[in-house]
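Exercise 7. Given the encoded structure of a 600-residue chain, write a plausible sequence.
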């Protein structure tokens, strides 16, 4: 009887937790693929958005630009969603949690929702199959309450308060709030420990977060952060990727350990042992290291073949200890290998940046083989899932184009040299970055106002253009196959109507014509009209290649340590309008299109 009662209690606990014996975690891997709890494939198409890790105390840069399109966090999130991204990599530094949060709750200029939507219209008609939408969903543009509301129509620019509900009590609480908001908006979130600067050969050299050198302290900080995330956002279960160490080479880490620094293997196993009990549905992203001599970019470096490791003297670090040490761990299927691939503008490499110069050989030897053949131990081989955790380019010269095309073909296992049998498809990725102030890659928006979308980069990820034949299956709102993200939780923003109405009796045409009466909103309506015609017929991060200060390869990289702006004036909505050929338009035809668009 007692055994029966115990069984019933256990059964009840399993039922409450949703966990049955043998049930999959909500997010996990199977046979080298990322899947959900039902075994369905999951494709992470993400973008990095840094700021918390560099003293900005928020995602950057909410001070840029001239209105809510770039200055309001929720509006920027809406824009990222419309571009088809379903995940955000959110770099963080534990040391910067101590920074006093900067105040981004501020008066800002609020354009009408239709004007916000117009910023998402590409200047040229894609050759790929189009969606049925004439504009992104205007009803989903976050509503920013005007500071002074006198009634009537919000058809022109209004003063409002951007980031009105952004926490200002602490940077740490703000970070957790951002994680929760993104998850509530339907995103996966990559919590990425990402120090600014490099540790190099000496402890603390240039790095601004040295907590990693005290493994016990560092693991405790991870544990506390995730515990608080789940307390505030229990809906985060199955939506988190944990990127433990951005580019371990920057800390001088190796798989074996050296010079009084714990081994990369021990650090990873210690933190996963601690976090898995509270985060069994999290994916654990593992970046490699200690193999720069093999031309493995920072973040890459998983080679285990003795013949490969012995190419250079002294022999490079061997990742075998990690795979052996995690072989029988209960969380082994939560492990995802997360290398970084970069082109010459970032890596400074003159070799290995395109297929004819050994690009695929480097990728295969240092990472790719684990996604195909796998790591073999105890008479068995285990294939690992991979996610390209960082990559990006400015596409400024032929080297960059050749390298990018090589990366895309490699990820797609495209026919030709890329389909070499040594690696699997890499269907999940995080593009670096939304922020444009990143040397060697730039960002997804212009570097002056952080407003105009860099459509060349969108072409590179969607494919289907003469310059970028193949893409990475990104589906923005204007392409067939776009899948709007489903909101979760209860903190989603209140959707705004096309215009805020005091008089709700206007017809759709009257509403659009009233918007057109606003000088600012006129460009939005023009963009809508031109898009109607279109629908029916139409880098971080780069160290200099050869630093002249004598620094070592492990000191030469990462991210925001070397940020700088790239020039170039943004393209306004008006210039997009001109690119579509306004000279061919006549007033009568425009009015007809207004009516057609408004009544659709």
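Solution.
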């Amino acid at each position: 009887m007692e055994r029966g009662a115990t069984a019933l209690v256990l059964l009840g606990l399993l039922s409450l937790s949703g966990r049955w014996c043998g049930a999959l975690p909500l997010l996990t891997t199977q046979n080298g693929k990322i899947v959900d709890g039902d075994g369905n494939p999951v494709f992470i198409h993400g973008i990095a958005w840094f700021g918390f890790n560099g003293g900005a105390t928020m995602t950057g840069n909410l001070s840029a630009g001239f209105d809510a399109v770039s200055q309001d966090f929720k509006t920027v999130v809406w824009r990222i969603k419309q571009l088809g991204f379903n995940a955000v990599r959110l770099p963080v530094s534990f040391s910067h949690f101590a920074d006093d949060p900067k105040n981004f709750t501020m008066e800002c200029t609020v354009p009408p929702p239709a004007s916000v939507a117009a910023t998402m219209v590409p200047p040229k008609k894609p050759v790929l199959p189009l969606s049925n939408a004439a504009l992104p969903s205007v009803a989903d543009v976050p509503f920013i309450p005007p500071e002074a509301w006198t009634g009537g129509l919000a058809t022109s620019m209004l003063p409002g308060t951007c980031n009105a509900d952004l926490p200002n009590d602490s940077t740490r609480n703000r970070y957790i709030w951002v994680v929760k908001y993104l998850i509530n908006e339907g995103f996966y979130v990559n919590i990425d420990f990402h120090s600014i600067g490099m540790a190099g050969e000496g402890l603390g050299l240039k790095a601004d977060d040295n907590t990693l050198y005290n493994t016990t302290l560092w693991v405790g900080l991870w544990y506390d952060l995730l515990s608080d995330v789940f307390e505030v956002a229990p809906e985060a279960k199955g939506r988190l990727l944990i990127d433990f160490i951005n580019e371990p080479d920057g800390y001088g880490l190796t798989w074996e350990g050296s010079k009084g620094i714990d081994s990369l293997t021990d650090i990873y196993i210690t933190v996963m042992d601690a976090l898995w009990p509270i985060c069994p549905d999290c994916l654990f992203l593992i970046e490699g290291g200690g193999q720069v001599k093999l031309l493995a970019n920072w973040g890459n470096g998983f080679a285990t073949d003795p013949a490969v490791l012995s190419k250079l003297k002294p022999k490079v670090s061997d990742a075998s200890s990690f795979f052996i040490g995690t072989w029988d761990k209960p969380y082994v299927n939560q492990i995802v290998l997360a290398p970084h691939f970069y082109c010459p503008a970032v890596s400074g490499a003159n070799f290995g940046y395109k297929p004819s110069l050994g690009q695929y050989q480097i990728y295969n030897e240092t990472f790719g083989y684990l996604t195909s053949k796998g790591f073999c131990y105890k008479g068995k081989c285990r294939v690992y899932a991979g996610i390209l955790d960082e990559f990006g380019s400015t596409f400024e010269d032929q080297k960059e184009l050749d390298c990018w095309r090589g990366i895309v073909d490699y990820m797609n296992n495209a026919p030709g040299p890329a389909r070499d049998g040594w690696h699997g498809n890499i269907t999940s990725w995080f593009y670096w970055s939304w922020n444009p102030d990143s040397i060697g890659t730039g960002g997804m928006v212009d570097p002056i106002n952080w407003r105009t979308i860099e459509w060349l980069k969108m072409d590179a990820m969607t494919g289907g253009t003469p310059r970028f034949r193949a893409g990475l299956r990104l589906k923005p709102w204007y392409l067939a196959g776009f899948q709007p993200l489903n909101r979760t939780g209860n903190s989603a923003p209140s959707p705004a109507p096309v215009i805020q109405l005091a008089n709700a009796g206007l017809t759709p045409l009257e509403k659009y014509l009233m918007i057109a009466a606003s000088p600012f909103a006129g460009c939005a309506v023009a963009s809508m009209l031109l898009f109607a015609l279109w629908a029916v017929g139409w880098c971080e991060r780069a160290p200099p290649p050869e630093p002249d200060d004598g620094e070592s390869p492990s000191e030469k990289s990462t991210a925001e340590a070397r940020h700088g702006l790239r020039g170039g004036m943004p393209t306004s909505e008006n210039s997009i309008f001109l690119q579509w050929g306004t000279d061919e338009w006549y007033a009568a035809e425009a009015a007809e299109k207004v009516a057609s668009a408004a009544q659709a």
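Remark. The CA atoms of residues 253 and 382 lie 25 Å apart. Students should compare their own answers with the one above.
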